[in-house]
Amino acid sequence: MFSLSRLVKRALVLIPLGFVILIFLWSHGSKENGAVLKRENVRHSEPVDTVNSISDLSRRPNRQKTGFHSPAQIAIHPETLPQKHDELTLSKLKNKTLLFWDWNWNPLESKFYDLMEVRHCPVKACKLTKDRSLVKQADVVFFLNGQSTPKTGPTYRHPSQRWVWVEGESPCHSRRLDKSWDGLFNWTMVYRADADVLLPYTEIAKRDTPIKKDYLSVTKSKRKLVAWMVSNCKTPSRRMDFVKELQKYIEVDIYGACGPLKCQRSGSWGWDTTCLDLLARDYKFYLAFENSISLDYVTEKFYKTVNIDIVAVTRGNTDYTRAGIRPEWHINTDDFNSPKELAEYLHMLDKNPEKYVKYLEWKNEYRQLPDRAFCHLCERLHFQKEPPKSYSWDELNAFFWKDHCLPPTDI
Ligand SMILES: *[C@@H]1O[C@H](CO)[C@@H](O)[C@H](O)[C@H]1NC(C)=O
Ligand SMILES: *[C@@H]1O[C@H](CO)[C@@H](O)[C@H](O)[C@H]1NC(C)=O
């Protein structure tokens, strides 16, 4: 029999349960899945031809067009900065106040207040603070995307104060800015090479003294081919689908939440190199596949392989040279017509250690270092005269979100 009281009882249990499930799905799914729905279909594809060696790679026409340049040069205009700072000038500088209105981002964590020291900035006269009561004297105020609105922002704004929009995620995973920010931001600060202030995931620097590692003998002890460590299985870039296809032609060992293998973790997942260090002993290649396909979106997935004896296979479908990453430093899925062709290339390198080590030898001369975005910014605030500017909402939207979360075209 149909009992009303039983129905009510059930509803009392099921409705809150449904709520919990909905909230769970929303918080876990919105990042990855919502973005898939939002993305715009505008990917242009370039014709790709077969690549058989590194020298072929560097001869590829699309490589020559871009060439090597440091994005920092785009962002800080070094020609307008003094080549060298004399001690007297430096000692006379008044501290600039950099206020982080909302910032709970780990790159700064414990070292936050000493950042200028920790990073050995040439110009250290900047005081980093999260103390909102200093807003009147702040030279720059940073807003990490999506956390505040002008309503919850400062109530006072000094005319010469710069407001900076900051983002670290790809546009696929970043909420579009509230329209009430229209006209209020002066600068953008993000990993994009064309940002006002470049905030890369990290930097690659030339070593003062090159090391001389014998990579051929390093290679001899590697018994396996491809490793991938991953915790987000479903992403806008559909990297899992790519890997599944790749696995038909080459063995790929998947570690982490999306695969059968486990590797002892320590520290934060993204930057945990302990595990990767272990993998580097056994594996020749590491899949540095981004979760999103978006202009200049190159993250720790690549950078964490730099100081380690493993070759990164990158998939970001973006021009890595804009981040200062040269073609001969990684194997880029963009250079192959299919996962099958990529697998053939990896097999070829496996059989030709002298070709394989070419992808490691650059590490003798370069290494990965924490980014010095705030050093550059501080120097610039002191030494670079810049005309005022601000961005409309439309401009920011066109710069970062609109048509910038792209669907994959290689699977
Ligand atoms: C500037 O800030 C630094 C770091 O907080 C501090 O050590 C230094 O004394 C300050 N300099 C001036 C001139 O206020
Ligand atoms: C920053 O933006 C505000 C608001 O548009 C503007 O009034 C101010 O002149 C800008 N300042 C600088 C230094 O660009």
TrEMBL record:
Biological pathway: Protein modification; protein glycosylation
Residue intervals of the Fucosyltransferase C-terminal domain: 220-391
Keyword Transferase carried by entry: yes
Region (Disordered): 50-72
Any GO MF annotation of the entry: fucosyltransferase activity
Record localization: Golgi apparatus membrane; Golgi apparatus, Golgi stack membrane
Membrane topology: Single-pass type II membrane protein
Residue ranges occupied by any Fucosyltransferase N-terminal domain in the UniProt entry: 94-201
Parts of the chain that traverse the membrane: 12-29
UniProt keyword Transmembrane, yes or no: yes
This enzyme's EC code(s): 2.4.1.-
Top-level EC class: transferase
A GO cellular component entry from the record: Golgi membrane
Similarity section: Belongs to the glycosyltransferase 10 family.
Protein name, per record: Fucosyltransferase
Organism: Lingula anatina
Gene name as annotated: LOC106160406
